[in-house]
Design a protein that fits this description.
Chain lengths: 333, 127
C-alpha cells in the first residue's frame, strides 16, 4: 500500500483553492493533530473538499441533467437481485439506479446534499408514476409496483449503515474520487462491511464497484497504459440556454448520458465532445470546475478489494471502466 | 426518511459502531408524514428476515405507534394476516420522518432530518 499511495502534495493542482485547502489542513494540524498520518489524512480530506465535493455541489443540476440513463451492466446486476432484497447505492448521485428494480428496497447515499435533493425528487416522481400505473392496472396485479427507495446524505468513509444490513451494494464512479490509495481501500472496506458475509455453504452479499480506467485506448483524451493516474478533469458549467440545446443535441444524436461508449464514469462536456453540436461549446463565460480522478490501471481494483479484506467474485472492463463484484467472506460456486 | 430505512442505520461515528447503544438511532422532535405507496405483500414478506425486530419495536414505540408484538410474525403468519400486512406496510413503507433529529444513544450526536432527508455528514472532530 505505502509504495503506491499518493499524498495530496503529489496530487495535481491548478488553483488557488488548493492553497486554501492546504492552509485549512495546516490549521487542523496546528490545532493539535500532530501525527504525520493525521496531517496527511486532513490534507487528503481538504483536497477532496475542493476538487470533488465542492465541484459536485456547484454542478449538481447540470451534472444530473446529463445522467439519466443507467448503465446496462449495472441495471442487469440490480434486476438479478431477488424480491425483498435490501440494497445500497453508495454515491448514488441523482439516484438513477434507485427504482431500476421495483422489487427490492434500495437506500441511496451521497456526499452532495444538492444531488441527494435531486435524487429525492426523482424518487417521489417515480413513486407517483408507478402509483398511476398501479391504478390503471387490472386486477391489482401490476408486477410489484411498490417503490422502495430512500435517500440520505453521508460520506463514503463514514457510512451510517449498520453492519451486514444489505444484500447487495453498488458503488458506481465514486471511489476514483478518493485521493489516496489508503482512502480508496478504506472506502471498499466500508462497502464490504455493509453486506452479509458468506459462510460455509451459503453465499453472502455482493458489492459491485465501477471506477474509471486508465486504459482508454479509444479515448479522445489519449489516456492509456503507463500514463498519469491522478488527474484533474474539467467540467464546463454551461449556461442554462446552451445546456438545453446541448441536451437536445445529445438526445437527437442518440448518445445519451452514461451509456457505454459515450459515457465514461463521468465524461464531462468538453470542447472536443461538444464542438460538433451547435451552440454547445464552452465560451469564455462558462465557469470550469476541476474534478479530481484517480484512473485505475488494470488489476489495481482487484488489489484494492483484497487489501480491504474482500474476495473478488468476478471482474472486468467495460467501455473505459474497470469493474469488480466483491464479497465479504467465502464464495461458493 | 422511511421507518424501514431507520432500521438499517446506525451512528456514522466509527467508534460508535461497536456499541450496542448506537442502534437504533432515536428520533427526536420528529414530524411524521405519510406517503401513499402501493402495497407489495411479497416484498414485505421477503423483507421480514432483514429487519431487526427489536430495533423496530423500539422505533415504533418512540414514534407513538401501537406496540409491536415481542416476536416478529413468521412468513406464513404475515402472508395470511391482511391487517398485519397493512399495518407493517404503513409503518415501514409509508411513514416518513420529514423533519426532526436522529440521536445516537452512545455518543449523543444528533443528525438533522430536513425535508425528509437525513444528513450524516460529521463535523471534523468526529471523523
Amino acid at each position: 500500500m505505502a509504495a503506491s499511495s499518493t499524498t495530496p502534495s503529489a496530487l495535481p493542482s491548478t488553483s488557488a483553492a488548493d492553497a486554501v485547502a492546504r492552509l485549512t489542513a495546516k490549521a487542523d494540524e496546528e490545532a493539535g493533530a500532530g501525527a504525520a498520518s493525521v496531517t496527511a489524512e486532513a490534507e487528503a480530506e481538504a483536497y477532496e473538499r475542493t476538487h470533488v465535493h465542492g465541484v459536485y455541489e456547484a454542478i449538481a443540476p447540470h451534472f444530473s441533467a446529463t445522467r439519466y440513463k443507467p448503465w446496462p451492466a449495472v441495471a442487469s446486476f440490480l434486476r438479478a437481485q431477488p424480491r425483498g432484497a435490501i440494497g445500497l447505492d453508495v454515491g448514488c448521485g441523482n439516484g438513477k439506479y434507485l427504482g431500476v428494480n421495483p422489487d427490492v428496497f434500495m437506500v441511496g447515499s451521497d456526499r452532495s446534499p444538492s444531488l441527494i435533493a435531486l435524487a429525492r425528487s426523482r424518487c417521489k416522481q417515480l413513486q407517483f408514476q408507478q402509483g398511476l400505473a398501479a391504478g390503471a392496472g387490472t386486477g391489482g396485479d401490476v408486477g410489484g409496483a411498490a417503490v422502495g427507495t430512500d435517500v440520505l446524505v453521508a460520506d463514503g468513509l463514514s457510512l451510517p449503515f449498520r453492519e451486514r444490513a444489505a444484500d447487495f451494494v453498488i458503488c458506481v464512479a465514486v471511489i476514483h474520487h478518493m485521493s489516496t490509495r489508503a482512502r480508496r481501500q478504506d472506502a471498499i472496506r466500508q462497502l464490504l462491511r455493509c453486506v452479509q458475509p458468506g459462510e460455509a455453504g451459503r453465499n453472502g452479499g455482493r458489492v459491485l464497484v465501477y471506477v474509471w480506467a486508465l486504459e482508454q485506448a479509444t479515448s479522445r483524451r489519449g489516456w492509456d497504459k503507463g500514463g498519469e493516474q491522478d488527474l484533474l478533469v474539467p467540467w464546463v458549467l454551461k449556461s442554462q440556454q446552451k445546456q438545453r440545446r446541448e441536451q437536445k443535441g445529445i438526445r437527437d444524436h442518440g448518445a445519451v448520458g452514461d451509456t457505454p461508449g459515450s459515457k465514461s464514469g463521468d465524461r464531462p462536456p468538453s470542447p472536443a465532445a461538444t464542438s460538433a453540436e451547435p451552440g454547445a461549446g464552452p465560451s469564455q463565460t462558462d465557469p470550469v470546475f476541476q474534478r479530481y480522478y484517480h484512473l485505475y490501471r488494470e488489476g489495481e481494483l482487484e488489489e484494492d478489494v483484497l487489501a480491504a479484506g474482500g474476495v473478488v467474485v468476478s471482474s472486468g472492463y467495460e467501455k473505459d471502466n474497470w469493474w469488480v463484484v466483491a464479497a465479504n467472506g467465502p464464495v461458493h460456486p | 426518511m422511511k421507518v424501514l430505512t431507520l432500521n438499517f442505520l446506525t451512528c456514522a461515528v466509527k467508534t460508535c459502531k461497536s456499541s450496542a447503544n448506537s442502534f437504533p438511532l432515536h428520533p427526536k422532535d420528529a414530524e411524521l408524514v405519510s406517503d401513499d405507496v402501493e402495497l407489495n405483500p411479497q416484498l414485505l414478506v421477503n423483507l421480514l428476515p432483514r429487519i431487526d425486530w427489536n430495533a423496530l419495536r423500539i422505533t415504533s414505540t418512540e414514534l407513538g405507534f401501537p406496540q409491536l408484538p415481542e416476536q416478529p410474525p413468521t412468513a406464513e403468519e404475515l402472508q395470511s394476516d391482511e391487517k398485519m400486512l397493512k399495518d407493517l406496510h404503513t409503518l415501514l413503507m409509508e411513514t416518513q420522518i420529514n423533519e426532526g433529529k436522529l440521536v445516537c444513544g452512545n455518543c449523543g450526536h444528533e443528525y438533522a432530518v430536513r425535508e425528509g432527508i437525513a444528513n450524516f455528514l460529521l463535523p471534523s472532530h468526529l471523523v
